[in-house]
Structure prediction request, 313 residues.
Amino acid sequence: MKNKLKFIGILTGAIILVSVGFGLGRWPVFLKNVQIEELRNWVASLQEQIEELRKQLSNGEGSKCFAQQVGPTGPTRLATVTYVIDGDTIEVDGEERIRYLGINTPESGRPYFTEATNENKKLVDEKEIKLELDVQTKDRYGRTLAYVWVGETMVNLELVCRGYANVYTFPPNVKYKDLFLEAEREAREAQRGLWVRGEVPPGVIKIVNINADAPGNDNENKNGEWVEIKNQDENSVNMTNWTLKDEANHIYTFTDLTLAPDESLFIYSGCGLDTQEKFYWQCPEGEYAIWNNTGDTAFLRDASGNLVDSYKY
Prediction:
């Protein structure tokens, strides 16, 4: 990006020099034989290049977050983005809905929803894109599942690196899983977007265990799944309006809760009567359990949506 900004400065300086020359009518000897019309065309060309570079910079091009060179590894097809629905869903060619593969962004009403949506707009809105599919091509809502490319940038990966999406890969669509995990690691270390740390110091409130594989059929024994969260500090911590979330969009919100020092609480995936230490995620119960047996990540966030802790298994 610095090189492009430098180039814009050089082009702008050249245009100013030529314009002053036009105004004063003073040109070096070697330019006397150059046709004025050619100079005007040259200035117009420079202006077009500057405008194009400015558009690229404002749209996020030329300033890729994820530095590693990545290109499609399978067939692609072209489409034009006609509407950006949110951070990970778009509409192309006026009718087809595309759900980005490998990532998940905040839903409407959650912290960072607006930021993720706006970042997606900067990257793809009204642009021609390339769509690359994986093994499973449709989700249960009929949306096309795809990796989305703008020029040399994979938008899915870029949103993760910029901190507006968490990794959400699910077999069999795992083609770029390692790249997504690397981009998320970079975003977490830099504390971008979703990975900004909350005011509670690290290690105070911890997710200490997840029992993801319930005895028998998880969907029929949801309370066989549970998450343990512990206060490892010497002081009580107010967890009112904190949230616990998986890699998808299952979110549990704590209400009117203060966790005492050295105390643990348990969140079960099914329905039940809450106590001081036991809480139940789904009342009434949904069709499915919460945690994937093949692997998932739990995110604990404070009332402002800032990250307190995470637990990956």
